Amino acid sequence: MNRPRKAADGAPASALPAEALGAPPGPRSVFLKVLSGAVSGGLIVLLFLAIIPKVADYDEVWDSLAELRPSTVLLMLALALLIRVLLAQAYTVITPGLPLGRSLIAREASSAVSNVIPGPSGTASQFVILRSWGVSVERFTRATIGVSVSTDVLVFAGPGLAFVLWALVGMPAAKDGSHAWAFGLGALVLSVVAVAVVVAVGRSERLAAGLGRLGQACANPLRHLAGKEPVTTWPDRCVALRTDTLDVLRNHGWGLMGCIVGGYVINGVLLVLCLWACGITGAEMPFTLGFLLYTVGRIATIVNLTPGGVGVVEIAYTAVYVTVLGESAHDAVVAGVLVYRALTYLLPIVTGAFCYLVWRLMRRREVHAETGTVVP
């Protein structure tokens, strides 16, 4: 029999799923993976067969994709991979002793899961993988909170900063440039309000509890309709979240924000490059304008209603860019957004599947080395 392995915080490894100990997935696990993959695949098919044909001409989109140069594709692929590394690096900054390689394996595998399976599946998968390597529940929770809160704040603050940059050095689009100003001013107001709320919560424990009570009051009627018990702990949880977030930022703020901001900016650069590569010219869309529109579209994708936001993200970005650039750029925008999503949605599924297999092999060897037995 295998001896139960203890994690770094002293918890027995028996609390881990069997897969975390190197055992093969059970029938239920395999069934859920296949079912979730089928659902996500169905959403992709729906996107290409029902949604895109209503908003774009496939022939024109293909002509735009045909303009891609191999050197440009390689550059965009390198940027997409750099984003993946920065996301993994953010967890190593907050989690002492976690190597970048293991963080990257956990992050990529969890990204693949979240892009296929609805709900908070990615977080759960990342927890299982990191837990199998001895990362304690407390450390994982603090890291997840720190990364999530920092990312959300940046998503809401980014449009305001991008608008200032665009207004100072950028130029509006050749057509319908007024829409860019409308988007920018609206984003600036949203950014100011969001940052003001974050700063106020950071300074006031009472305000954090008040936000918890407000969210609780909004959620409980819906829970009542669903036949669930009302929640009563949100004020305390918001206070605890505030405390943990401030502690993480106090100890690891610069390193964490470097990774989060770096990933956010490179994402915007990647989207602009994809649009340029598919036929949008620099005269139509200067970089500062393209980056501003990326930050606006990013807000619409902060909550993923579908696995990986498939369908929703494509429509959001397409709508934002076409509104400003005009209908003449429609097909090129659709092509550019599809290339961008191939690099940020499909690529993590491929790299994540590979990382999942690597983790499985590593766990089998680690368990064998620790117990002296072969895991079936």
List keywords for this structure.
376 residues; mainly alpha; 12 helices; 76% helix; globular; disordered N terminus
What count of helical segments does DSSP give? Answer: 12
Rg result: 22 Å
Portion in strands: under 5%
Shape call:
globular
What is the makeup of the main sheet?
none
Compute the number of strand runs. Answer: 0
Mean of pLDDT: 78
SS-based class = mainly alpha
Helix residue percentage: over 70%
User: Which stretches are poorly predicted, pLDDT < 50 over at least 5 residues?
Assistant: 1-16
Please provide the ordered H/E string of secondary-structure elements: HHHHHHHHHHHH
Distance between the termini: 12 Å
Task: Lay out the secondary structure.
Elements: H1 27-55, H2 58-66, H3 70-94, H4 100-114, H5 121-132, H6 137-169, H7 177-203, H8 205-225, H9 234-277, H10 287-300, H11 312-325, H12 330-371
